[in-house]
Amino acid sequence: MARFSLLHAFTLLSTALLAAGGPPTRCKCLYRQTCWPSQQAFDALQSQLSQPLLHPKPIPFPCYRGGNASNACQDIRDHFTEGLWRADIPGVMQHNNFNAFIFPNNTISKCPLNPTNGETCEQGSVPPIGVDAHSPKDVQEALRFAKQYNLKLVIHNTGHDFLGRSAGRGGFMIWTHRLKDITFHDSFVPLNQPGNAGVEAVTLGAGVQWTEAYTAVHARGKTIVGGISTNGTVGAAGGWILGGGHSALTPTFGFGVDNVLEFKVVAANGKFITVNAQSNPRLFWALRGGGGGTFGVVTSVTYKLHPKVPVSGLFIIANLHEPGTRPTNRDGIRPNSPNAVRQGVGRLRKLLCDLGLVDFLGRAERVSSRGQLLNATAPFDSFFDWYDFIFAQASSQVGVAIEISSRLLSKDTALNRPEEVAKTLLSLPRGVAFNSVAGGAASRIDPASTAFHPAWRRAIAEVAISEPVDPENTPVETVRAAQDRLKASTKLLDTITTDSAAYYNEATLHEVDFRKSFWGPNYPKLKEIKNQYDPTSLFVVARGVGSEEWDAELNCRK
C-alpha cells in the first residue's frame, strides 16, 4: 500500500512538472509530446485496471521489417477484408482510410498492406496506447487518467465509423469491445420509474455486435430493432444507437432511439450513472441521436423487445445499361410509395450506374397484400431468418478505403417530384444506396422526443453516396480529387432534399454546416447538455457536438 502511495505521489509530481513544458492548456496532450505521461504514470494506471494496457498497431505491421513471409503476415492478408476479424483488433478501423492520417502539409502517416521497397509502417490515426475495458470501473480509471493528463481521448469498439471518430492520432484509447454481457428481462422497469408497467427487454453491453444480439434475441423468440451490415459487425450499443439508429424494421417499430429504455454511462466526472426518462432525462434525450463519443462512455443499453413476426423479402436485379432501359426504369426506382412505408415495408437498395439492386423487407401479410408490386416474394419465419439469409453469411465489404455522404428524402418530395428524384439519382457518377429506413411507425413519434434530427420524422428514405478515398495507396492529390467529387455529388442531392439533413452515422467530414445537417433545430439544446455533462470537453470527436470550437485535428481550441 505504501509503495502505491509513493508511486502515485511521484505520478502527480511528474504531471505538474511536465505540464510546464508541454503544449498550452487549450490543447490536448499527444503521444511523444513532453506532456505525455511517464512510464511510471502508466504503471500506476495499470495497477488499477483488470487487464493489461493495450499497445495497438496498424493491421499490416507484421508485414514490415522483413516479415512479408511470416505466418502472421499471411494471416493478415487472408482476413484483411473480414469485418468480424478486424473488429477484434483494438484500435483498428473497418475502412483503411481512417487508419491513415493526412497532415496539413499533405504528407501522410500510413501503413499500407503492400509496402513498396523501403516503406515503413507508421502509426497513422491508430492510438498508440489504450485501456482494454472489461467493466465500468476500467472505464472510470481510464477517464480519470485521461482527464488528469489532458489526453486526447478515443472511444473505440468495432471501428465501424465513416467520420473517423473512433480513431485518433497520438490519442489514448478506451476499447469497449469486450463489454459483451447480454441480459434478458421478462419485465423491465427503468430505474426510478416504479409505477411503470414492465416490458420485455434486453440489456446489451457496449461491445455486443448486432450479429450477437440478433442471435440471442432470436433464441428467445423475440425481435429487436437493430442495424444492418454485412456479417452483423456493427456495434449494438455504441455509435449506431447514439447516432439515431436506422433499421430495416424502422417502418414497423421505429428507429433504434425509439426503442431504448435505459443507458448505463460513465460520465466525464467519472461517475457511473443510470440514464433514462426519469434519471438524467436531459442526457437521455441527448444520447438518443446526439452522437457517440460526445457525452460520456456508454457501457450498456437496454432495448425493448417485440414479438417475432414472419416477414417477406424480395430481391430484384434490373439491368439499367441496355439502350432505353434507364428512362423506362425511372418509375421502378422510385422510393417506396408512402403507402408501402406506412404499412411497414422497408427497403434497402443500391443503384449503380449499370445495375439496380432492390431488397424489400416487410411483415409477411403486408408485403403479400401489395400483390402487383411484389409478385415474387420469399417468406421468412422471422426478421432474423431474413437477416441471416441475406447478410450474416455475405462477403464482407470492409478493408477498403471509402468516404460517404448522405441526405434524407422527404415524403413530400417522393410524392410530388418522383421523376426529378429518379433523374437525379441516375445522374450520380457512382450510383447511390437508397434505404427506405424511415416513415411508417417512426413518422408517428413526436420529433421532439429525442435528439435525432426532426427531418427523420418527415423522411421516407436515406440516400447515401460514396467515393473511394485511399490515402494509403494513392497520392494526396488523388484523395483530394475524390473528396471534391463527393462534395459535388452531395450538392446535387441537395437539389432534391430539404434542410440538407443527413444521417450522422453515414456522413461526410466535408459538410458545409454539420450542426444543421446532423441535428437541425436540436443543436442548441444539445450544446447546452454537452456543456452541462462535459464542461471541460474531455470528449471531442469529428463533427460532434461542440467540435466547432476545436481545430481541424481536434487537438487545440480555436
Automatic annotation (TrEMBL):
Keywords: Oxidoreductase, Signal. PROSITE patterns: FAD_PCMH. GO terms for molecular function: FAD binding; oxidoreductase activity. The keyword Metal-binding does not apply. Residues 1-21 form the signal peptide. Gene3D superfamilies: 3.30.465.10, 3.40.462.20. InterPro entries: BBE, FAD-bd_PCMH, FAD-bd_PCMH-like_sf, FAD-bd_PCMH_sub2, FAD-linked_Oxidoreductases_BP, Oxid_FAD_bind_N. Residues 123-308 form the FAD-binding PCMH-type domain. Belongs to the oxygen-dependent FAD-linked oxidoreductase family. This is FAD binding domain-containing protein.
